[in-house]
Amino acid sequence: MQKRRIFINAFMSVLQIILVGGVLFFLYKFLLKTIGVEQFGIWSLVLSTTSVIQAANLGLSGSVVKFVAKYVARNELDNVSGVIQTTAISLAVVIGVLLIAGYPLLKIILRYIVPQNSIQLALAILPYAMVSIWLSVITGVFQSGIDGFQKIYIRNILLITGSVFYAILCFLTAPRYGLFGLAYSQVINQGALFIGSWFLLRKILPILPLIPIQWNKTIFIETINYGINFQVMSIASLFIAPVTKALISKFGTLSMVGYYELSLRMIQQVSELVLSANRVLVPAIADLQEKNPEKIRSIYLTNYNLLFYLALPIHTLLIIGAPFISQIWIGHYEKQFIIFTILLSAGYFISTLCTPSIISYLGIGILRWLVIATLSVALFNFLFGIILGVLFGVYGVIVGWILSLLIAGAIIFLSYHKIYKIPYKNLLPKDSRILLFLCLFMLIFALPIQLNLQSFNNFNTNLCILVLSLLILTIPFYFHPMRKRLVEWLKESALKKLI
Q1: CA distances from 74 to 67, 281, 289, 295 (A)
Q2: Taking a C-beta distance cutoff of 8 angstroms, is the pair 233, 54 a contact?
Q3: What are the domain boundaries of the chain?
Q4: Is the pTM of this model over 0.85?
Q5: Nearest 5°: phi and psi at 76?
Q6: Measured in whole angstroms, how far is the alpha carbon of residue 409 from the centre of its chain?
């Protein structure tokens, strides 16, 4: 039953990423033509800056999955209800007060990082971004509650529906209201997700009241004690994206912020395709920690090998296909988008490989090394971003971010492998070495050709290189032992469904 639940959650997570990714592809293509890349960059910058307020979430949002899963495993549903309501009420008050109090400071920050000719527009949409952030924080609590019940497929259905609804709203409002249409759509969509998430959570846990009214001091103290580490991580991690975008705006232009946002969203969506199936293991590991903790090590090794097998060719093809994607999505070769994609793909590959360790740490509740790693990313991203930004401009900022990820990844890997006495040679899985060699070979072969200015705008050349790379990488991918294991898991799950 546990394996089947994990499979269903993983399958729906992957499906959600594919469908949402498809919706975002057409939506962003539409927005580029409708409002332009500069206004899209303004919205990205304002929303990212406002999201810093989430750093004051007391670490509670990260505690919900852990404690809901814990109390569900113990069949203590009253405590489950108390965790959800207490967290939602606490965050609604704290984030709401801080958004109102921080409004003048946010205006000052935007005046510093947004060009003078666009500042009035940025300030005009700031209130909409603030309302959207407030709604998303509380909605996140409800959705974390759903995750804690290991019913992640329900949240995925919500996210699919929400992305389609958001796209429809943008298609209707952006042509008429421009950037304000994007802001209106964001608030309306977040409001719909807020209501829908609470409604579905009450279906899972009927003892929840119509409106969250129960605030439990004991539960608040318990969750906030666990959430202190989450709080530190939240403060650190929430500054990473705004700092990076602010530095891009400072050393570059709003157009660069817009192209960076496009590349970032694309790579995040593709990375989520790999990672989302793994996130279902957080509540599952929390459950194992209560019942069968000795299995956690084997789950980590299997999870890491699976991610290495999937992420390596996917990020390789993203890098090789960057010029082709630019021509299809943006409508022309865009050098900034392509270089952003190459750099971000390398960074997200590193981040992806850290995920199994992170998931295990979260599931068992040991967060010290995650806190150190997250603080390292935030600190070095800022320092490297400024230093390399001054020396090399916008692309130096992204390289600084990648270097900070390398340092954080080393902290997570070394600590986890030492604690669980896992040989470091497992970081390069034996079964994936041929695949790694061919991925490196294709990158060395393809990038010099694609970085030739004459072939940048050659659609056929870029397409041929991408198809050739896909064909070559398909061979080791198909004969990889992990593929056989995936097929066996799928057959086993399908058989259980029939039975």
Answers
A1: 11, 18, 12, 19
A2: no
A3: 1-238, 292-499
A4: no
A5: -105, 80
A6: 16
